[in-house]
Amino acid sequence: MSRGPASNNKYSYNHLNAKGPSEAIDVHDITVKKSRLRIFLSYFGAAVFLTATFYLVALKELCISSIWIILVCFSLAKVLHHKPVKKESVMIMPAFGVQLETHYWSGRVIRRFVPISKILKPVLNECVTPVTCYWSLALILRDEVELMLVFQKLQPPVRMLVPVWKALCAATDCKRNQHHLNLCAVLVSVYLASDTD
Amino acid sequence: MVSDFFYPNFGGVESHIYYLSQCLLKLGHKVVVMTHAYGKRSGVRYVTNGLKVYYVPWRPFLMQNTLPTFYGTLPITRTILVRERISIVHGHQAFSTLCHEALMHARTMGYKIIFTDHSLYGFADVGSIHMNKVLQFTLADISQAICVSHTSKENTVLRSGITPERVFVIPNAVDTAMFSPAPNRLSCDEIVIIVVSRLVYRKGADLLVEVIPEVCHLFPNVRFVVGGDGPKRVRLEEMREKYSLQDRVEMLGAVPHSQVRSVLISGHIFLNSSLTEAFCIAILEAASCGLLTVSTRVGGVPEVLPDDMIVLAEPDPGDMVHAIRKAIHMLPNINPYVMHSRMKKLYSWHDVAKRTEFVYDCALQSDDESLLQRLPRYLKCGAWAGKLFGLVMIVNFLLWRLLELWRPAESIEEVPDLVLVQNEHQEPMQDFVEARD
Lengths: 197, 437
Description:
The complex is a heterodimer.
Chain A: E1 11-19, E2 24-32, H1 36-58, H2 64-80, E3 85-93, E4 97-104, E5 109-115, E6 119-128, E7 133-141, E8 148-149, H3 158-176
Antiparallel strand pairs in A: 1-2, 2-3, 3-4, 4-5, 6-7, 7-8
Chain B: H1 12-26, E1 32-36, E2 43-47, E3 51-56, E4 60-62, E5 65-66, H2 74-83, E6 88-92, H3 97-108, E7 112-117, H4 126-140, E8 144-147, H5 150-160, E9 167-169, E10 191-196, H6 205-218, E11 222-227, H7 233-243, E12 249-253, H8 260-264, E13 269-272, H9 281-288, E14 292-296, E15 310-313, H10 317-330, H11 336-346, H12 349-365, H13 371-379, H14 383-406, H15 429-436
Domain Glycosyl transferase family (chain B): 187-329
Keywords (chain B): Glycosyltransferase, GPI-anchor biosynthesis, Transferase
GO biological process, one term (chain B): GPI anchor biosynthetic process
């Protein structure tokens, strides 16, 4: 077992390399640190929004200023909203496939499996939105136009993404060696993200 | 480099930014271009030699300009400047709203800024008055400014009130490798006059309508080739019909930039009838292809070419016909290859890049100043305008501080310099990780 030490004040990264019966299974985790402040703020924002809406509706005054107040409270609630994601993990089984998991605080787990033959290449994208620019890790799949994001809900910093990317490249490379592809040396593609959640 | 105008749009400003960036990359600097998204082309793109372009997804609203929201572009500008470790922000073209906003944000954040003006503007109409006020705001606190000709420097200084010592004159150049003369010299029996420009009022399309029939009448061996499109094309077509010049005047329509050279080398004389030009790159391209130029004496045009390569005329049809007559007589003495080699020595983008580098060095040597030291410069701009500008800068400063609290600069990760490797088997991202650690 080996551990990655990378962490910042929001995310922490773990790398578990368990040796199975015949092959090594690589697991990369990105865990969200539980922050009481964020949970409190998220409930506070929701409470303010609901109170404002009910108060104004109950008073039966729906003029322009009340609609503005509702809109402002709604955007405040949206900004403060705390995602219920506990951790996202990538399980790489060489020569078999990649399993992407999303674990929620409520205990729910969403799993997606991608067979290794479907992956053309994993790429690190720079995504540009109207207000910011961030890195994301995505898989280019054969016969599909859309890229598949590896970490769908979280936006971890790039130094946590790089080891995952390297492991994915190594896993897809062994399989890909028999296919000679003329790829450009710098493969940085574009992905326009519409929201920054 | 910041501007609303970049590839895939084609024009003087766009090619200036592109060539200047390529030459600066060759000199070893790091260049990043920021512009707005063009249709589906948005996000990060790499063009030749690894020049990184940010197509920021802000919608253009009028003539390729981003919607001016004053403070809306502050977050993305700040993110790009921090993550790319920028030291100087260079804005292009007074008509670009993204340029003015980005320069304002960069100045608030303490970066050195440079502005290049590419066009001449008037003083009288309402649009110009507003534009000049915006320019005055941007240039009130600029480190250095660059203009493309002495006429343009005079125009910029008058419009914005900036001190002339801060303005450098660096003319544009031309890619002489791309614009070379025809391998075989054309015979002089039939003289072909080329016109390649947008057919709009500013470029003198109305003058063409008067000049072409006159010249065709006086010189039976002259033919015209007109390339380009625009609202005035209809007038030219009408002129063709009226004087039955279908076999003497050929209309090519819009000519893609890559085919401009092949159009130019099919002629002897290049005709430019613009009513206003700060610096005309089109005549440089024509001279590089070995054509003799006939042009209107407006703006910065007299500064562009030596007297034996150009014949100037007033923007009046009679004078232009006279100039064309003079050009036709000069034609046997013109050697396109000699012209081309002279142009190679006179104009080169590498020279422009070196001179721009000098301007950058001057800008970097100026002192860092706080907001309080800079505000008086804005207040001097006018009775009402000065106070408004000061207010705008203060609000910008406060918003920037708020943004620093919410998303500190340390949380914006810096982008490592990617090394372009031609070998497909090599892993370029290894340089990525080593640079970060």
